[in-house]
Amino acid sequence: MTDSDAPAESASESSGSAEHSRLEGAESTVDPATLTVAERSLHPRVRYLWSLVALLFGVAVGLVILGLHVLLFSVGRPLLAAGGIGGLVAAVGIVHALLRYRSWEYEVREDALYLERGVLTRVRTVVPLVRMQHVDTARSPVQRVFGLSSVVVYTAGSRGADVTIPGLAVERGEDLQGRLKQLAIAAGGDPAV
Amino acid sequence: MKLHGLSVPFRIVEMALRIGWIFVFGAFGLTTLTDGVVTVVAVGGLIIGVLGILAAWQIAYYRRYEYRLTADTFDIDAGVFSRREREIPYGRIQNVAINRNVFQRLFGIAEVRLETAGGNAAEAQLRYVGIDHAYELQDALSDRTGDDPAPQPTAPDTAAEQQRQRPIFEVTPRELAVLGVVSLDYRVLVVIIIGTSAFLPQLGGRLLDSGVFAVPVTVLGLYLLTAILSALYAVTNYYDFTLFQGDRELRYERGLLQRYSGTIPLEKIQVVRVSENVLARAVGYASVLVETAGYSPGESGGTQSAVPIAQRSRVDTLVEDLGFETIDSFTRPPRRARRRYALRYLGATLVLTGVGYGLTLLTTMSYPWFLLLGGVVVAPVAAHLKWRHRGYAVTDNHVITRNGFWRRTTTIVPHHRIQVVFDSQTIFQRRWGIATLTIDTAGSRSLVADDSKAVDIDAETAARLREALFDHCLAAITNRQTDRSTVMEGRPAER
Question: What DSSP assignment string belongs to B23-55?
Fold first, then answer.
């Protein structure tokens, strides 16, 4: 929030935590400040992925309408109804996908992961890195086609498991995972439970 | 160490009851296939055979089940065919619970359960051990539980241990009576409705015949039935409830027929909730729930009733004894939130009235649909009540949130237990410039209680609080770590 005093604070803290990691016997004495990532959006390609998913959903809706027409009751103009409703669903989905991409922003601070996202419901999350239990990168088949991956951060919180950053370029996802891991080690751990 | 010898017959009976349907179906099948003496012999053979297999299995289970307390883990080696050797570090144990039903009490045996934060079931279940031994285990384990174990006693001296624990809370008959009166369990209502669903068509017909008055009468009847059953359930469950405080843990005992006893390590408490339903609040009573990250029987999730019901002043004392803050003054959501609730309720009333009117047009039913418009009068009151009972407060060590009119729950989260903080704004909230701040902890969420949430607070305040709580969380963790390292060097009690 207050950008002006953040660096001063973190500078003093980073020396403390760097020392801490040395005490822990961690091999790296990397300065946490060098690992941060300024506010950043997802990879633009994720727009195509999400749009494709929306499009396929629209097609599915169209097919269901056609199926209903054949099996249960006849609709006046089946093709028009299917195309129209399916198309509308797809269009809404695609607009949502584009807005969703625009709404997404993540930031790696020295001591926290900050996420901002959501079209209809805006959510802004702070995950203290001290609380991080482990961090995954995951790639679904569709994501692999697009060369994208997700980073998932787990905490001991009851709903912490769904802190997911979707749609990162593969190298960037791995890089992010590495940074988060090192920062979490530097932050030290607190027996969470 | 071995389980109690009596656990063999107990487990056989238990198992036989569970698979009783095999006997029924088997015997039924045999009677249709055979007749006369052959039937008797066949059915007898079936019963003896199945019981024999069960007995052999349970004896093998008993012989191959072994547990022991080592220097830093609780080990269990078990399994007849597939062996499992499990080691549970003492520091990871959340709760130790002892349960006994009437029959087990009669024979002096008990079930002991250990819970850890992982998994969705008890990590270890000793079925069954002698009751004295169960208490010894509970004491021995809670001595060693915690991040920073106390110097281990050379021999667990149960008598001294029990002395050290002072009862800090005993439910009074009066409180038990209040508990019976105010505990309305909606789950009981569900059971009643399912139970009576067979008669519903007839009842429904009667209702329509007897006109408008039948509805309130039925509602009253359902209410009374639910109230009585809930009361019975609550009173038998919490009969003779006593809470003891030891050096490092809380221990409770409760139950009329089935006795429960459990420990809650003080260090493991994540969240404390004080909740009061509208009835309890009216007479000045409240209940306390203590949440650990463990998974516990009897209660949903790791939530344990520290106190089922008590006078408000006793509740506050207890909560403060646990090291949690209680406050009276909460910051309420801005007034525009109340306006929003009122508008929403008004809208809902109008829609409902419209639907009600529509029904009279579409069907032949006629009833005073315009009575639904009464909601217009109720809406502002309801909005005010909803708004009034919401609030939050951030103190030096805790963040406290409060929500709910029918059941008001105050959630107290220590800063060092915060896991993740987020503020969210739905599209509707955005128009009013308000947001909801959620504070996630590792406490297992129970069915009834929701997360710690400051609902419908000013959007900018929410964003500011999100960062402030994050800072508080880091500071609190750092403080605790320094505390702990100084404690390590020169020992004395941490809390």
Answer: HHHHHHHHHHH--THHHHHHHHHHHHHHHHHHH
